[in-house]
Amino acid sequence: MNNPSANHINKNLDEVRAMIHRHKLNDYIFSIIGLLCLMVGLVTLLTLFIDLIIQGYPKLLSLSFYTDFPSRRAASAGLLSALVGSSLVMLVTFISAVPVGVMAAIYLEEYAPKNWFSDLIEINVSNLAAVPSIIYGLLALGLFVYILDLGQSIVTAGLTLGLLILPVVIVATRESIRSIPIAIREAAYAVGATKWQVVYDHVIKYSFGGILTGVIIGMARAIGETAPIITIGALTFIAFLPPSPVTTSAPFLNFEWLSSGFTVLPIQMFSWLSRPSEAFHVNAAAAGVIIILVTLIMNGFAIRMRYKMRKNIKW
Amino acid sequence: MNTATQVLNKSLTPQISARLSKNFTRHLKERVIEFILMLAALSAVLTTAAIIGILLYESYGFFEYVSLSDFLTDTVWTPLFENPRYGILPLVSGTLTVTGVALLIAVPIGTISAIYLSEFASHRVRETVKPVLELLAGVPTIVFGFFALLFITPLLQKIMPELPTFNMLSSGIVIGIMIIPYIASLSEDAMRAVPMSMREGSYAMGATRFQTAIRVVTPAAVSGIVAAYILGISRAIGETMVVAIAAGQQPNLTFNPMDAAATITAYIVQVAMGDLPHGSIGYQSIFAAGLVLMLMTLTLNIIGHITRKKYSERY
What does the protein in this record do (chain B) (predicted)? Predict the structure, then answer.
């Protein structure tokens, strides 16, 4: 141990040990920083939610908040027309976006030949997904409100949001269709099925869960969208309900509601929020709680469903 | 022989022709269905065309009245005033300032989160955190606007008493938090696409996790990470409600985040809230602003797309 080379080795070993220690410490420090960064999102989400509840609870707990129309006085202003408006707009959005989106996805996955035309469609879908939502509002203002003369109505808002979530539905449906093994299609072809029979009896049925997930996520996004609806000029005082879609006499369906004026939850929240009076901010907070609850529940349900499907399906 | 064929033909003809005709309707049905599905897919192309068409059409009216050089170089944007001036620069400066603040928040936190999720986190942590990030991404922007105006701004005012109620700093911070999930999940995808053998090589040389993550995985995934940043920038530029609520609505040529200023999107919202007559110069000005916004995000999306394509080809 006393000879110089052994000392030298010991010294080197110590250095190496110190280095390893230092690097392990770096690992440790980084994993703490990483966890903290991950927490930023979670903490924000919690703070946001708790803050909204604290500011809005007096309104949230009163039943009249859900059954009253908006009012000039903060104390008696309610959400009724916004709740009804949101539901009707979502109905139009669902009817306009889901069939078109699912059909487009089927075409792209099952039918589209590999050529420039299919590429063009694909590029457009991925581009549309990244267009800011307010641009859809400008499209709706120019096209639906003025050129097609639909006015600032439920059908305009529903179609606008429908266009907005179309890429979401298409992308989700395509992913879901793509995960079906080719063997299923081959088996159906082998017993003489036509392409459409394969698609209708097998592809759509097996991808139903994935399509549903995409539709729910898209609808959750549409419920919270504010900018395109404001852009079509729908920020007005609405203290009435649209005509009922269902009537008691034949033909039992009534389509006047489509062209009715409306307000939706995020618009109502925005109009309360943009008033200087603090009393209206309580209403805005309460409306915010409702919006965030609806979107969190829808998204949570969809995410959970996707997770379960991934676990259960083994082709 | 001849007669035999004739007999055969005679007896079988009705059946064969029945089968053939059924075959024919079968083919026709397939064709019709394929055509309908193609029309649905075409809706994506039509939407893009409609967006570009409307923006160009309405902007054309604007640029007949305002020269392009005024639009791009004038430093005052007051289209609704007595003496209207049409310089887009103040709106662009507001947009860029908010985006800059957002990136200062989102890029470090998003990148560190991605590295942690991809290289450090256990399977369980990843499975818990990713859904939460997705939920955060699904929270409607109007709620974040409320948060910026009535939570973050008062909080910042405690530290900086001279901060005005409307300022770009708090909206930038909130938008930054909003785009963390996009940057984190896209960057994580890029890092996970780095082949395991590269990590194993690094570990075999005695590198720690941190060294492997920083010196091997991150450089290998850099184009995917850059694409994530670019898509994050595009989101921040197009974000509307947070800035419309919390950043103020006065166009202001400044890069100081402590000031109040309007962004392109906030201006569109502000004009749409008023009752501008169809075809007036104020009405057309929001389409010109929208065109600038669309060009900015489209350029970024294309660059992001190309960068991502490049990295996916490498492995």
Answer: Part of the binding-protein-dependent transport system for phosphate; probably responsible for the translocation of the substrate across the membrane.
Annotated domain spans of chain B? 15-65, 89-312
Residues of chain B with pLDDT under 70: 1-22, 311-315
Q: Could you tell me if the ipTM is greater than 0.90? A: no
Domain limit, last residue, from A35, A61, A87: A61
With CA atoms as reference, the chain B residue closest to A30 would be B210
Looking at the complex, report in whole angstroms how far the Cα of residue B2 sits from the nearest Cα belonging to chain A: 34
For A29, nearest residue in chain B (alpha carbons) = B210
State what percent of residues in chain A have pLDDT above 90: 24
Nearest to A140 by CA among B97, B241, B173, B268: B268
A204, A80: one domain = yes
Residue (of A127, A48, A32) closest to B178 by Cα position: A48
Q: What's the one-letter identity of residue A168?
A: V
Instruction: Report the CATH number at residue A168.
Output: 1.10.3720.10
CA nearest B195: which of B222, B162, B217? B217
Return the pLDDT at B1: 47
Other C-beta atoms closer than 10 Å to the C-beta of A273 total: 24
CA quadruple A38, A42, A48, A53: dihedral, nearest 10: -170
Based on the fold, state whether residues A118 and A45 are members of the same structural domain: no
Asked if B297 lies within 8 A of A132 by C-beta distance, the reply is yes
AA identity, residue B38: M
Count of domains forming chain A: 2
Facing residues of B31 across strands?
none
Q: Containing domain of residue A186, as a range? A: 63-312
Out of A33, A51, A125, closest to residue B147 by CB: A51
> What angle do the packed helices A278-312 and B123-138 form, to 10 degrees?
140
How confident is the model over A147-191, as pLDDT tens digits? 888 878 888 999 999 999 999 999 999 988 988 889 989 999 898
Q: Distance between CA atoms of A196 and A100, rounded to whole angstroms?
A: 16
CATH classification number, B89-312, choose in 2.60.120.20, 3.40.50.10490, 1.10.3720.10, 2.30.30.220: 1.10.3720.10
| Overall average pLDDT of the A196-206 stretch | 89
Counted across chains A and B, CB pairs separated by less than 8 A come out at: 261
Strand partners, A246: A253
- pLDDT of B7 reads 55
Same domain? For A10 and A86 the reply is no
Residue B88 is which amino acid? I
Does residue B79 have a cis peptide bond before it, meaning omega lies within 30 degrees of 0?
no
Residues from chain B contacting residue A136 (CB–CB below 8 Å): 51
Q: Distance between CA atoms of B273 and A134, rounded to whole angstroms? A: 13
